[in-house]
Amino acid sequence: MGELTHFNEQGRARMVDVTEKPVTHRRAVAAGEIHIAPETMAHIKNGTLKKGDVLAVAQVAGIQAAKHNWELIPMCHPLPLTGIDITFRLCDTPCRVEIQAAVACTGVTGVEIEALTAVSVAALTIYDMCKAVQKDMKITNLRLLEKTGGKSGDYRAEE
Fold it and tell me: Which residues are known to be catalytic?
């Protein structure tokens, strides 16, 4: 396990200085899911919710979340992201929407938190869009699937 770098010599939080780090291509993929009722799934598939196209809105929300991640997570750096892709898979057994976000940049720090934030906000947006028909949805299994680039090297989650 690596050293915690977000603390100064007084033990207080700090934003790590990445000035001297080399610029590399970095990519991260994160995933999560929201468990919903079959009735809610039917509304999503048929486009019958009053707020509009659930997945289209969640996709834009996830992209915005990745771009503005540094405004939400205090020690994250603002990054010039070069690519964001949010995908969804509708599953009937158990009834859920699987969400995946791939984020890329050429920079001095990784994009894992941007990808995780994108998935989280996409799931929260699905919840918001569907809460009129279901209140007991569950957002679960948020995780990093893979990351490439940077000093710590590549990572791929075990299946």
Answer: 128
